[in-house]
Design a protein that fits this description.
By secondary structure, the chain is mainly α. It has one domain. It contains 16 helices and eight strands. Helix 1 runs antiparallel to helix 4, helix 2 runs antiparallel to helix 3 and helix 13 runs antiparallel to helix 14.
Length: 513
């Protein structure tokens, strides 16, 4: 890939990152708000209280705005696999395309069909059928996330496939291995529960604003009660799924874990960094200190990654230079074996073209002996295998720190509303309002940790990002990057303006007390 323009790779990565980050502004609110709306409508159907119907319809209106605008960014992101990442789509499309196709056929159509009934079917269908439609929208939207995260989980930990030297493609051999990939289901549960947390923060923020303005008091209290209860449950669940996700990262992506914790030198009983400031001049192979300042929890990283206080956790130095005592192969050896796999694959193709069966068999045998390291054959410098450390470290700790704050917030808000003290605690109401942007920050930090932390790989240990890009003009990618930046920003501004206008108008007439 020496002929590949590095600027093309960088701009392609930047464009996809831009699309993904904007898309994830809209998606988590949809994932969580659908369930909150379904819970509110269930209360309405059970009690027959018209207040709950009005409350449900208000939040459903905000959900519709977010759903419609979020759809546009998702469609664009899927098209980018064909435009900017055609080599990726060719090499792994047999596996990656299957869950995306199921997402479109099953989940998306179920979600879209019943969304129309949910939004336009009031007083046109029975209460119970409308409630069923609302729950199916909630289930469908989260099923959409399931199949997308199965695909993403496979990128983090590829299973259930084999590389076919005749086609130079990875082909699926076991669909169920892909679906039940432990990395995929832990990522799915952690991701959707984080979306539910954000939706709870959204409802609390808007309702807190009403209480600060001393309007729609009954509506705001009821909404906060549902959101804080739901938020506390899903935030505690989110913490447990985060623990499970970290364990899979430790086992399947040890370099990512080392970057998340700024761990340069591995050790048994490794501590976890509760708070730290990295030394920006530190390199894995020098003797300078790792942190300018840090607070640690003894043995916490070993416990997080391996559920054992004295487990050995490799650092960046061991993962690059190797550690025979712990069975860790050096990066140089992986690169050597990867180049042997590339050479054997080339020899196999040449022998096949020449019709030399014996040479084909020999080359195939050499290839299969080193196929596991094929992706490393395209790595030029072992230093490339270290992801952007500071970005990964700070994103991870931002996500975790905010997660603990959200749990505390839900507890405080729920206790205050149950004791009828919330309206008197203006500081807590302001905390509820200001925690909404922190919720979005935590969402983006989580995805930055997941995606930046596995660089330079498009598919972990199999396909470097540089090998995955399309052969198109760099200028075309630059132009579309800026066009998308303008488009997505306009969509975001439109959503914020429409939502704030709707919030200022407030619930339907009669919801005031």
């Amino acid at each position: 890939m020496t002929h590949l323009d590095p600027a093309l790779v960088d701009w392609s990565r930047a464009q996809f990152a831009l699309t993904a980050l904007y898309h994830w502004i809209f998606v988590p609110l949809t994932l969580g708000l659908t369930f909150i709306v379904a819970i509110m409508e269930t209360i309405y159907v059970k009690t027959g209280d018209e207040w709950w119907k009005k409350t449900t319809r208000f939040w459903m209106g905000l959900l519709a705005i977010n759903f419609a605008i979020g759809l546009a960014t998702g469609i664009i992101m899927e098209f980018e696999f064909g435009t900017n990442w055609s080599n990726y789509s060719w090499i792994v499309g047999d596996i990656f395309g299957a869950p995306l196709a199921i997402e479109g056929i099953m989940a998306f159509f179920m979600e879209s069909t019943f969304f129309a009934v949910m939004f336009f079917g009031w007083d046109k269908v029975s209460k119970r059928f409308h409630l069923l439609s609302t729950w199916l929208v909630a289930i469908g939207s989260n099923l959409s996330a399931l199949w997308i995260l199965v695909a993403n989980g496979w990128m983090q930990h590829p299973v259930g496939m084999r590389f076919n030297p005749d086609t130079a493609r990875n082909e699926m051999v076991n669909f169920w291995d892909v679906v039940f990939n432990p990395n995929a289901y832990s990522k799915f549960l952690h991701t959707i529960s984080s979306g539910h947390v954000l939706a709870s923060l959204f409802v609390i923020a808007v309702s807190s604003w009403y209480l600060l303005k001393k309007r729609d008091i009954k509506f705001a209290r009821r909404s906060i009660m549902v959101a804080a209860s739901f938020g506390l449950i899903v935030s505690l669940f989110n913490a447990t799924t985060g623990d499970d996700a970290a364990r899979h990262v430790a086992q399947d992506q040890p370099m990512k874990l080392a970057a998340m914790e700024g761990l340069y030198n591995g050790k048994a009983g490794a501590p976890i960094v509760a708070f730290g400031i990295l030394n920006p001049s530190k390199r894995y192979n020098d003797n300078t200190r790792e942190f300018l300042f840090k607070l640690e929890i003894p043995e916490g990283l070993s416990l997080l990654g391996f559920h054992s206080f004295d487990a050995y956790v490799p650092g960046i130095k061991q993962l690059i230079e190797g550690d025979k005592a712990h069975g860790i192969m050096s990066a140089e050896e992986k690169i050597r074996r990867g180049k042997e796999a590339v050479a054997a694959l080339t020899a196999y193709k040449q022998a096949k073209k020449a019709g030399n069966a014996q040479a084909m068999a020999e080359a195939k045998q050499r290839f299969e002996a080193n196929a596991k390291y094929l992706g490393y054959g395209y790595i030029k410098d072992k230093g490339q295998l270290v992801p952007p450390l500071q970005t990964t470290f700070y994103a991870f700790h931002t996500m975790v720190g905010l997660g603990f704050w959200f749990i505390l917030l839900f507890i405080l808000v729920l206790y205050s509303v149950m004791t009828n003290e919330l309206h008197r605690r203006r500081w807590l109401l302001w905390a509820g309002v200001l925690s909404l942007p922190l919720g979005y920050l935590a969402q983006e930090a989580g995805w930055i940790t997941a995606e930046v932390g596995r660089q330079p790989w498009a598919i972990q240990d199999m396909l470097p990002v540089g090998m995955a890009t399309s052969h198109i003009a760099t200028g075309s990618v630059m132009m579309t990057f800026w066009l998308f930046a303008i488009l997505f920003t306009a969509l975001l501004i439109a959503e914020v303006k429409i939502m704030t206008t709707q919030i200022k108008i407030g619930p339907e007439e009669g919801n005031h007390v």
